[in-house]
Amino acid sequence: MFTAAQVLAxxxxxxxxxxxxxxxxxxxxxVLLGIATVLxxxxxxxxxxxxxxxxPGQDPEGSTPESRETVQDPTDRGDHA
Length: 81
Description:
mainly alpha
């Protein structure tokens, strides 16, 4: 019968010869995540390229009245000659 101290003291961290797969398995997971990220980026780029330039019902001047206002140059003092 095992006591709680024996169960907690048992080495289950993968640094023994019998179960030393933590390094290769971690590398496999990292490579798999990298491949998945590249495929997702490529997929989203192709979807973004297929979007139209304008959507139906879109205001040609801009979507909000604030975007139609001209932005003044903060260095302009208003003394035009």
